[in-house]
Specification:
Number of domains: 2
Shape: globular
Helix content: over 70%
Largest sheet: none
Distance between the termini: 18 Å
Structural class: mainly alpha
Oligomer: single chain
Radius of gyration: 23 Å
Length: 516
């Protein structure tokens, strides 16, 4: 499991780095301006459905069902299931695309009612350009699910690289031919979705599985398809709460002033960097493994798989949280401080990031805990956790937005993520004897991280004095962030090695096996 997730993480790392480059290009072209808010609102809808499909509903519902069919070995039944799901999913997302394009103005007003008329009109145009992206991502997600079920993870890991390269290229190549840079980025999103799909097709054709379009009624009459559709809504609530909260937060943040919406999205992108590289990679790999062990009744292997994943999440996210709390400004300035993204934008985004990043542990925990429930087809706790998260986020966003602006919205999302994680942990005790040891392990990693961050913080003042002659230099910004980060990582690795940390030992064994 660790080996497969590490291979996927390498490709995801490349994708996320390019994603940051993409966001840096967007920051330089749009900043936290009104046009930047227009693009943020417009991109939010296709991105919401993409996350809901790729990171959630189809993956969490589809993978367990398809893995079970593969185990049965009935080729014809498997083909009928794939064709049925493909037809239903495409029909749903095609309908959403048409409705969204026809109602683009209403959608813009719904999620951002405080936009100026000219900005709202531009947001509506951008929605129309980008919404067809849903068709490409729907088909691509199904193909990704099939590949993951047969243990092929590299294409789905590299496909986002294709998407990011396309968007970056479009921003520069199309900018001279569009009315504004936001439209060039929007066309890049559309083309990126298409190329992402086309990239995965050759790998899918190497598998023994095929599917084709079938009638909607025929598709829904298939028992396996019907069962998956019944699970669709509760799964959407369970795994889609994080994305739904982003929509709700954007709607509320729109009233907090120009640039708040954009600053929150830039803050979320940094959080997504860690989630994507480590946690999403791990959850993608772990779900087929959990399903296999659950179906075989191997409780010991099931618990070992889940326990390993949970401890790895703590090993990665807790140090990242503590370091980011102290170096948020340096991180944001280094990544996004270009062009239109000035010091005010950096300050606004760093303020939100400090509240967002605390929720990283809870969001990551939910992404690992949810597959445990899905593998055993126990949806009550994921649904309860999702509903709790949505309600808590709405209440605290309304309470905190006036006083804390973007920071209040970010804090509300963190509180909501913590509430959802607690619900899942409460339910986990019935199915997995790993909660207590995991929490003790998380406390140990927190203590180690706190020890390591202190020398990094003490280095800040001498470095600032040494580099004071070059305050706006990117090299100086890189050193102000990079040197403390290197000190922190080396100390954390050294102390983890000294205390014989089990997760570090597993990673070291993985490296040795790769060398052989």
């Amino acid at each position: 499991m660790l080996k497969a997730s590490s291979v996927l993480a390498v490709f995801t790392l490349l994708s996320r780095v390019l994603g940051l480059v993409r966001e840096s290009v967007r920051a330089a072209l749009l900043g936290t301006t009104a046009l930047g808010d227009a693009f943020t609102v417009a991109f939010m809808l296709p991105d919401f459905f993409r996350r809901l499909a790729a990171d959630g509903i189809l993956t969490s519902s589809f993978v367990p069902a398809f893995k079970s069919l593969i185990a049965k070995g009935d080729r014809e039944e498997t083909r009928a299931f794939l064709s049925g799901i493909f037809s239903v999913a495409c029909s749903v997302f095609f309908a959403l695309t048409v409705i969204g394009m026809l109602a683009s103005g209403a959608l813009s007003s719904l999620f951002a009612p405080s936009l100026e008329p000219e900005t709202a009109a531009e947001s509506s145009r951008l929605i129309k350009i980008m919404l067809p992206y849903l068709a490409f991502i729907t088909a691509g997600t199904l193909i990704q699910g099939v590949l993951n079920c047969v243990g092929v993870f590299k294409p789905s890991g590299f496909a986002p690289v294709v998407f990011n390269i396309t968007v970056i290229a479009a921003a520069f190549l199309l900018k001279p031919f569009t009315a504004n840079p936001a439209r060039a980025l929007a066309v890049g999103v559309l083309c990126g979705g298409l190329f992402q799909l086309l990239f995965q097709l050759p790998f899918f054709l190497k598998t023994p599985f095929r599917f084709s379009a079938t009638g909607l009624l025929k598709s829904l009459s298939n028992p396996a398809v019907k069962r998956l559709c019944v699970l669709f809504l509760p799964t959407a609530v369970g795994v889609g709460a994080y994305q739904i909260n982003i929509l709700v937060s954007t709607r509320i943040a729109n009233s907090a002033g120009v640039g708040v919406v954009s600053s929150l999205q830039f803050s979320t992108r940094i959080e997504d960097l860690i989630l994507g590289i480590f946690v999403v990679s791990l959850s993608t790999v772990i779900l087929p493994e959990l399903v296999l062990e659950a179906k075989s009744g191997n409780t010991e292997a099931f618990e070992k798989c889940a326990r390993t994943a949970m401890k790895l999440v703590s090993f990665v996210t807790i140090p990242a949280i503590l370091f980011t709390l102290f170096f948020a400004t340096e991180m944001v300035g280094l990544l996004f401080g270009f062009g239109s993204f000035g010091s005010e934008s950096v300050s606004m985004t760093a303020f939100a990031l400090r509240f967002h990043i605390v929720g990283l542990f809870f969001v990551a925990a939910a992404k690992i805990l949810n597959p445990v429930f899905f593998a055993k087809e126990r949806l009550l706790f994921p649904v309860t956790a999702g509903c709790t998260s949505i309600a808590v986020n709405l209440i605290f966003s309304l309470l905190l937005v006036e006083r804390m602006k973007g920071g209040g919205i970010a804090l509300a999302s963190t509180i909501a993520a913590a509430a959802a994680a607690l619900v899942l942990l409460a339910g986990l005790g019935r199915h997995l004897k790993a909660t207590g040891p995991w929490l003790v392990y998380s406390l140990k990693i927190t203590i180690i991280s706190a020890i390591c961050v202190l020398p990094a913080v003490l280095l800040r003042s001498p470095l600032q004095q040494f580099l004071s002659a070059y305050p706006d230099s990117k090299t100086a910004q890189l050193l102000l962030f990079g040197i403390p980060a290197a000190v922190f990582v080396v100390l954390f690795a050294a102390i983890s090695f000294a205390v014989n940390d089990e997760t570090l030992k597993a990673i070291r064994r993985l490296g040795k096996s790769d060398d052989r």
